């Protein structure tokens, strides 16, 4: 219980510090919103394990060939490489999978 809570607030911290500069929770501004990304990823990867694995691998090295959101690349250009390690990105991806967007405005 306390462990998962800790992992959760750590995931939130990492997300806020590193991703929300470009990805707003629900609005598409300079990049697709987190809500759009999570919705698309869940359509492609129903299992949390697959979702987390694909997303964290992609963010380590964003590539057009492996993108599942090509329309977003033509709209916003390819996401830059940020230099985070895969472990950090797995925590962020796992947090994103569990995020509840219905409460966000
Ligand atoms: C400098 C701005 C910027 C930052 C910072 C950023 N992103 Fe992105 N991201 C983008 C843009 C623009 C796109 C849309 C184009 C694309 O898919 O490459 C995108 C797309 C994505 C996608 C869709 C991948 C696909 O299949 O195309 C994922 C997943 C993602 N971002 C995750 C993250 C995570 C997690 C972080 C924080 C660690 C993050 N992004 C930080 C700009 C950013």
UniProtKB/TrEMBL annotation:
<dbReference type="GO" id="GO:0020037">
    <property type="term" value="F:heme binding"/>
</dbReference>
<dbReference type="InterPro" id="IPR009056">
    <property type="entry name" value="Cyt_c-like_dom"/>
</dbReference>
<dbReference type="GO" id="GO:0046872">
    <property type="term" value="F:metal ion binding"/>
</dbReference>
<feature type="domain" description="Cytochrome c">
    <location>
        <begin position="6"/>
        <end position="100"/>
    </location>
</feature>
<keyword id="KW-0408">Iron</keyword>
<dbReference type="InterPro" id="IPR036909">
    <property type="entry name" value="Cyt_c-like_dom_sf"/>
</dbReference>
<keyword id="KW-0349">Heme</keyword>
<keyword id="KW-0479">Metal-binding</keyword>
<dbReference type="GO" id="GO:0009055">
    <property type="term" value="F:electron transfer activity"/>
</dbReference>
<protein>
    <submittedName>
        <fullName>Cytochrome C</fullName>
    </submittedName>
</protein>
